[in-house]
Amino acid sequence: QVYVVFSEELQCWCRALVQSVWHRADGCQLRCFLVDYAKYCSVASENIRVLAEAFAKIPYRAKKCRLHCTKPLTLYIDYCENTAKIGPAKRWDSAAIQYFQELL
């Protein structure tokens, strides 16, 4: 579901998909993907609103996509034989995802 959140960085209200929620001492924090700016941001729970139906029908300016024919890799370390090799992985690790987002 798409919500409206206030982005401190952009200083405006934006449409967003909520990725995760975590609790802090001063309240809840939301990790959101801004669908019109293709950015991730953290938002305090008091800065989220329900999206008006008319605005929900407007197409997003940013689209989530995947890299064609690119498979995730990981580093396998064998402590017994003191070797390391790169091999296939089932999913991307968080460091690779963060590096790719920084490239974008």
From TrEMBL:
Q: What is its EC number?
A: 3.6.4.13
- SUPFAM superfamilies attached here? Tudor/PWWP/MBT (SSF63748)
Biological-process GO terms, alphabetical: germ-line stem cell division
Q: Which reaction does it catalyse?
A: ATP + H2O = ADP + phosphate + H(+)
**What molecular function terms (GO) are annotated for this protein?**
ATP binding; hydrolase activity; RNA helicase activity
Q: Do the record's keywords include Repeat?
A: yes
User: Which residue range or ranges hold the Tudor domain?
Assistant: 3-68
Keyword match Hydrolase:
yes
Which keywords accompany this UniProt record? ATP-binding, Helicase, Hydrolase, Nucleotide-binding, Repeat
Specify the protein name: RNA helicase
Q: Which organism is it from?
A: Dryoscopus gambensis
